[in-house]
Specification:
The protein is an alpha/beta fold. It is 49% helix and 14% strand. It has 12 helices and 7 strands. 39% of the residues are buried.
């Protein structure tokens, strides 16, 4: 019999945990007072009145492998697809992720295949870091910026390892959910490009870059699908100004953008790394060194509906393939461990 809920629980519990209510008035006051001070350290969103509970429970992108609002803990099963979206700000990752979360559970072909609606969650592991800490390198220095980037890499690694390697705790009051699809907005593929861009822009040292990239390389094997969204730098800046203006309800000034979006030099370097990834996907069908990863390239300037259709169709094909036997993990390469980013880059340059 078909289940009506889009999630099937590994275990269901009737008890609810008792939490101390958040003092939202106090948190709001603190956030407002800190807004102007934090603005230049990160995104222009930093002056929003946002509680940690809201950050950790954002349905458009959870920061951990659990959701405090629903008391659910998520895991990857034998055939779970872990898909990553990479690419420039404003290229459509958020928009198409939201569409996929709504449309895929309703897809009749997947319902027939699974015997129930698809279980899917979206994750944005770097969001918690952006809400908690400033990152202006001019004020805090390159070592701080390297640590900030390292924490993002570690949080992404922790998320993926928790999803794949951990299992439910016995006699727990939590609800455990095995996902069919985990959408990771900026995972290890994106982190590697971003970290190398920081080094190329002179914002972190070579040693820090290599150390941070190793963290991403250790968990990159968990990603079985990559969608790379591309958009020119100027278009990305214009879209960010428009989007933030709409959110604020007033015209947005370029000077109000976050530190990254105001740094055109860095954005151009970052775009080159994304372009390299796009070229690898177009030429080889996958990023260099990772032949087991299914990839698609999406032009962020193309028709949004066509891009959504392309993204959702590719995800559906990957899910169908996985359920029919391929599984979510990347296999070994001729009996050898999955190559690190450093080794694949060296091989490509040889």
């Amino acid at each position: 019999m078909l289940e009506t809920d889009t999630r099937t629980h590994i275990r269901a519990h009737t008890k609810t945990s008792q939490r101390t209510p958040l003092d939202t008035q106090h948190l709001g006051k603190m956030s407002t007072e800190a807004g102007d001070k934090q603005r230049n350290n990160g995104s222009s969103r930093s002056n929003e009145v946002v509680t940690l509970s809201e950050v950790c429970s954002n349905p458009q992108g959870l920061v951990f492998s659990f959701n405090p609002a629903t008391n659910e803990v998520y895991f990857a099963g034998e055939h779970t697809v872990i898909a990553e979206e990479t690419g420039m700000v404003g290229s459509g990752k958020d928009k198409h992720t939201k569409t996929a979360i709504v449309e895929l559970p309703k897809d009749q072909g997947l319902v027939d295949l699974l015997g129930r609606p698809l279980r899917v969650e979206s994750f944005k592991p770097n969001d918690i870091v952006k809400h908690l800490f400033g990152k202006n390198p001019e004020e805090m220095g390159p070592e701080y910026r390297a640590i900030y980037d390292r924490i993002i890499n570690r949080n992404t690694a922790n998320l993926l390892e928790s999803l794949v390697e951990m299992r439910e705790k016995e006699d727990s009051e939590l609800t455990f959910v095995e996902l069919d699809l985990a959408l990771v907005n900026r995972g290890p593929y994106d982190n590697i490009r971003f970290t190398r861009s920081l080094y190329d822009a002179g914002l972190i040292s070579k040693e820090a870059m290599e150390r941070n990239c190793r963290i991403a390389s250790e968990v990159i094997r968990y990603i079985s699908f990559v969608a790379n969204f591309s958009i020119p730098v100027e278009e990305a800046i214009e879209r960010e100004i428009k989007r933030e203006g709409e959110r604020l309800g007033r015209p947005m000034e370029y000077s109000e953008l976050g530190e990254v979006m105001r740094n055109r030099k860095f954005l151009e370097i970052l775009q080159r790394h994304y372009d390299d990834l796009s070229d690898e996907i177009r030429e080889y069908g996958h990023p260099l060194g990772f032949a087991d990863v299914d990839c698609i390239y999406i032009d962020g300037t193309a028709d949004p509906q066509e891009n959504s259709n392309k993204f959702i169709s590719a995800l559906k094909r990957k899910i169908e393939s996985s359920v029919k036997g391929k599984g979510y993990k990347n296999g070994d390469h001729n009996g050898e461990p999955t190559p690190t980013y450093a080794s694949q880059s060296a091989a490509a340059g040889a």
